[in-house]
């Protein structure tokens, strides 16, 4: 059992150890495997193939396992390192500590969005983007998207998702008008905001985070550590609202075979969502 901490409470030593472990996983080539995996399993509604990572009920358990796999990779470098979380409803400006030179570095420059500060700046020589959707070899960010400004989700935005009494609903994709999963994952429905919660964070950071290969930005892991914590909080607030669909969809359902129900395995690990409904035996959140 170990503890994931709020990034704002990390000591200088904990920041250094986290950064060093991330850089070592990158140097080994394993980091790019994580980027590749996320890109491969980012399957939109309209695409062929099974959807497990996004726009599907398994958004939460899939990312729980994904972050856990990354955390284990870090711990092979330094057993004391864990993935901290970023509460973007509180640390919601470019001045927040996680963007410091001693941790994740800051915003990209206006000319090409290239991150110029911190340990993941291309010019430091340790962070080359080799698996991406653009030809850029450097990490990019575009805080707040000045061309079409957006703000990070507010406490009220998150509270709205937390009030949802059901986990998910048919048609089990990005068009679900209610339910915790899609309200939090944040796909646009009807006349609502274009992006909400999880998705809006990706848009606000911009650059690499606004692509299917978003783990190219190490803030991805802190973002999804917080998403994991939010899921845990929602489960505790709604103890009788279980994961759905609980059973394999009926023959003839257009989503049958496209999503995983409670006990259908998720690629690429072959694990069932039912095995990932709790993290209590592995780690806790401070």
Structure description:
- With about 290 residues, this protein is an all-alpha fold.
- The chain has a single domain (about 1-285), classed as di-copper center containing domain from catechol oxidase (Orthogonal Bundle), CATH 1.10.1280.10.
- The protein is about 30% helix and about 0% strand.
- The chain is built from 7 helices and 2 strands, in the order E-H-H-H-H-H-H-H-E.
- The chain has helices at about 10-30, 30-40, 60-75, 155-165, 180-185, 195-205, 220-235, and strands at about 1-5, 285.
- It has a two-stranded parallel ribbon.
- Helix 1 crosses helix 3 (about 60-75) and helix 3 crosses helix 7.
State the end-to-end distance. 12 Å
* Physical arrangement of strands within the biggest beta sheet: 1-2
Instruction: Report the biggest beta sheet as strand number plus sense, adding barrel if it closes.
Output: 2 strands, parallel
Question: Roughly what is the average pLDDT, rounded to an integer?
Answer: 95
Find the CATH topology. Answer: di-copper center containing domain from catechol oxidase
In CATH terms, what is the architecture? Orthogonal Bundle
Which class of secondary structure composition applies to the elements?
Answer: mainly alpha
Overall radius of gyration: 18 Å
Give the count of structural domains.
1
Please identify the top-level CATH class.
Mainly Alpha
Share in β-strands = under 5%
Dominant shape? globular
As residue ranges, the low-confidence spans are none
The H-level CATH homologous superfamily, spelled out, is: Di-copper center containing domain from catechol oxidase
| Annotation field: number of helices | 7
């Amino acid at each position: 059992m170990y503890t994931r901490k709020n990034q704002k409470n990390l000591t200088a030593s904990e920041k250094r150890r986290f950064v060093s472990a991330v850089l070592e996983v990158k140097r080994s080539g394993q980091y790019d495997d994580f980027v590749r995996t996320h890109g491969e399993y980012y399957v939109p509604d309209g695409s062929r193939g099974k959807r497990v990572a996004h726009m599907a009920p398994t958004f939460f358990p899939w990312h729980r396992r994904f972050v856990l796999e990354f955390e284990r990779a870090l711990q092979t470098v330094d057993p004391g390192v864990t993935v901290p979380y970023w509460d973007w409803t509180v640390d919601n400006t470019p001045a927040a500590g996680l963007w410091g030179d001693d941790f994740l570095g800051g915003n990209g420059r206006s000319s090409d969005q290239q991150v110029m500060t911190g340990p993941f700046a291309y010019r430091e020589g340790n962070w080359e983007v080799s698996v991406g959707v653009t030809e850029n070899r450097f990490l990019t960010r575009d805080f707040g998207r000045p061309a079409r400004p957006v703000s990070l989700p507010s406490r009220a935005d998150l509270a709205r998702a937390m009030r949802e009494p059901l986990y998910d609903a048919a048609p089990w994709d990005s068009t679900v008008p209610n339910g915790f999963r899609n309200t939090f994952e944040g796909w646009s429905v009807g006349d609502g905001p274009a992006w909400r919660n999880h998705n809006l964070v990706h848009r606000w950071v911009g650059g690499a985070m606004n692509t299917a290969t978003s783990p190219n930005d190490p803030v991805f892991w802190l973002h999804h550590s917080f998403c994991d914590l939010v899921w845990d909080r929602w489960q505790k607030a709604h103890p009788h609202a279980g994961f759905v669909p609980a059973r394999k969809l009926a023959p003839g359902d257009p989503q049958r075979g496209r999503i995983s129900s409670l006990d259908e395995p998720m690629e690429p690990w072959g694990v069932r969502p039912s095995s990932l409904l709790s993290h209590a035996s592995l780690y806790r959140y401070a």
